């Protein structure tokens, strides 16, 4: 069964928390155990030394009798929670701290331990002290020297189970704290993973909806982090897909209309010739119309193929150096008849007498021809067309401006689309741009240049860049 991202994260981080707290518990147990033993050892050493100095030496100097010594040892027994023995120079036990310790009176400490003490060294060990105890003890032995003579030693025995009990009490409290901290961490983990996984699941569901063709789906995720950025990017993608789908539908509708119109004309005229509706003397005229419509269909088909080849990278760019000003003047002359018929005022403003550029010359001729054709076509009578060039760093910017009323930013944005038609209610660009501007844009991009359009006061301006000659 496929696990959700919530399950994967919760299980993964859950195991990590368990292992982390488990290792922490083991480390603390080891540290606490050693800490309590070391602390007890230091305490026994400290008081072993005090007992030696304050009590045992007083005994050997005659300032302290044995009865007082035993009473003092009993007090220290309760304070240290340890058994205290006093041995003489021969290793015989003659003083103990507890009444239940009297069984050890008169017993002998083995020569090995006595030898260590005789040489002035302390004893620190754990075990049953040579079999004298049934349970393990921590033993600290401190030698007694009086007038530089070895007189005996103080032995302090702390029960290891007693030390371990104190350690276990602290350890249990620590473990409980770790458990509650772990549970609290689990609760935080649950909500944190929920906070992360739920938006991702929502994005996943939305992606499935989008893949089904419902491009209107949008996400409302406000997490203030990268997931929110992802949701915004997803919405941008969905909006782009919706726009692409809308363009696709418009493209199909527009191309269907542009194909149907000439084909309807051809069918009507050919049918009229065949059934005799069109008299023989008029057939030549209508056959010329049919030929024009066929040429129009061929041109449209060729432009579609050309645009497809450009977009698929099948068209090679052949950049050469050429004179731009000459090309602009020649292209303007080509439109002289149309300009004269509409009484259009033309202004040519070139930044220099000669401008050498580096680009694909054939493509640039197509680009300039198409842009000038649109400018002439959509400029009303008595309007104006301005053709300008200017330098901008390593580029030459060409601007073609023509009068155009009531054009808006939406029209400017959409005019690059294939077969885009302007607002029919305004009478702006009713005939549409066909594939011309789409091909122009792709040719510009193919050469690594930029093209854009912007609205001026009562006019529209097309601008594109060309690299300077190297």
From TrEMBL:
All copies of the HAMP domain together span 194-246
Q: Name one GO cellular component term.
A: plasma membrane
One example GO MF annotation: phosphorelay sensor kinase activity
Q: What class of enzyme is it?
A: transferase
* Principal subcellular localization: membrane
**According to its record, how does it sit in the membrane?**
Multi-pass membrane protein
UniProt key word Lipid metabolism: no
Q: Which UniProt keywords apply?
A: ATP-binding, Cell membrane, Kinase, Membrane, Nucleotide-binding, Phosphoprotein, Transferase, Transmembrane, Transmembrane helix, Two-component regulatory system
The record's annotation in Pfam families points to: HAMP, HATPase_c, HisKA
Q: Cytoplasm: present as a keyword of the record?
A: no
The record's subcellular locations are:
Cell membrane
Its domain of life reads: Bacteria
Reactions the enzyme catalyzes: ATP + protein L-histidine = ADP + protein N-phospho-L-histidine
Any stretches that span the bilayer, and where are they?
Answer: 12-37, 170-191
- Report the EC number(s), separated by commas if there are several: 2.7.13.3
* Residues of the Histidine kinase domain: 254-470
Question: Under which name does UniProt file this protein?
Answer: histidine kinase
Organism field: Lutispora thermophila DSM 19022
User: Mind giving the lineage of the organism this protein is from?
Assistant: Bacteria, Bacillati, Bacillota, Clostridia, Lutisporales
């Amino acid at each position: 069964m496929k696990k959700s991202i919530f399950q994967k994260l919760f299980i993964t981080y859950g195991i990590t928390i368990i292992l982390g707290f488990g290792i922490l518990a083991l480390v603390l147990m080891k540290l606490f155990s050693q800490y309590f033993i070391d602390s007890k050892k230091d305490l026994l050493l400290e008081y072993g030394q005090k007992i030696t100095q304050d009590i045992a030496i007083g005994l050997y100097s005659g300032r302290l009798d044995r009865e007082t010594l035993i009473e003092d040892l009993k007090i220290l027994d309760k304070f240290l929670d340890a058994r205290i023995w006093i041995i003489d120079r021969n290793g015989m036990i003659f003083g103990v701290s507890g009444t239940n310790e009297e069984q050890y009176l008169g017993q002998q400490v083995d020569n090995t331990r006595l030898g260590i003490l005789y040489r002035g060294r302390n004893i620190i060990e754990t075990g049953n002290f040579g079999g004298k105890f049934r349970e393990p003890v921590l033993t600290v032995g401190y030698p007694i020297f009086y007038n530089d003579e070895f007189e005996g030693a103080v032995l302090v025995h702390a029960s290891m189970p007693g030390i371990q009990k104190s350690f276990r009490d602290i350890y249990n409290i620590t473990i409980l704290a770790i458990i509650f901290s772990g549970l609290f961490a689990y609760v935080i983990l649950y909500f944190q993973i929920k906070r992360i996984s739920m938006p991702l699941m929502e994005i996943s569901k939305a992606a499935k909806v989008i893949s089904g063709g419902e491009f209107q789906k949008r996400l409302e995720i406000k997490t203030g982090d990268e997931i929110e950025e992802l949701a915004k990017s997803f919405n941008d993608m969905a909006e782009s897909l919706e726009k692409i789908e809308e363009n696709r539908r418009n493209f199909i509708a527009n191309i269907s209309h542009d194909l149907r119109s000439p084909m309807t004309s051809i069918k009507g005229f050919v049918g009229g010739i065949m059934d005799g509706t069109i008299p023989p003397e008029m057939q030549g005229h209508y056959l010329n119309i049919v030929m024009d419509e066929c040429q129009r269909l061929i041109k449209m088909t060729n432009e579609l193929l050309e645009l497809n080849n450009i977009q698929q990278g099948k068209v090679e760019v052949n950049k050469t150096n050429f004179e731009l000003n000459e090309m602009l003047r020649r292209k303007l002359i080509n439109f002289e008849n149309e300009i004269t018929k509409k009484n259009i005022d033309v202004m040519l403003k070139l930044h220099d007498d000669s401008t050498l550029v580096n680009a694909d010359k054939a493509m640039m001729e197509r680009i300039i021809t198409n842009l000038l054709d649109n400018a002439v076509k959509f400029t009303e009578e008595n309007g104006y067309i301005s053709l300008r060039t200017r330098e901008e760093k390593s580029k030459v910017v060409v601007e073609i401006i023509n009068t155009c009323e009531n054009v808006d930013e939406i029209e400017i944005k959409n005019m690059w689309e294939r077969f885009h038609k302007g607002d029919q209610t305004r009478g702006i660009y009713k005939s549409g741009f066909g594939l011309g501007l789409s091909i122009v844009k792709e040719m510009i991009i193919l050469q690594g240049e930029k093209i854009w359009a912007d609205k001026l006061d009562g006019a529209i301006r097309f601008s594109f860049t060309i690299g300077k000659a190297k």
